[in-house]
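Appendix B, example 12.
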Amino acid sequence: QETELSKDIYMRPLFTEKRVILARKNHPLLGDENDWQTVSTLPIVSLPAPASYNPQCTVESEYQRMGYQPHVLLKSYNLRVACQMLLETDAIMYASQGTARLMPELASFPMPQVNREFSHFVVSGGFLQTYRNHPLHQHLHRVIQNTFQPTPISV
């Protein structure tokens, strides 16, 4: 079921995660370096975004930018179903490193050369506009922001 966000929700980026190719271990065509000529021939398993989410760069637009047409084998909202398909076929899925860690039975492979907007996922958090300026929410926002900001390394 698709989720639509209310216009009363204020969204703010929290952090980014690197995008990887998720596939079965010992994939016959993927390795430490991957190119578009190889990746473009592989079927794709896709986890559709909610209808209200319009990313700047999608799988389809990145394939078209590189001169290829994606072959989507399965679209599913269920991560387990998607991963089972990856285990049973040579299909690939574009996922975050966090998703890859959730599925230890699969392997993550590096992306081919891609557009900067397609190289990572932006993870955002949201809260109601009604309470946006409430002191408690401002404090929580500062705590969350400080938690996800990288700490400077002392030399």
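The two ends are 50 Å apart (CA to CA). The chain has a mean pLDDT of 81.
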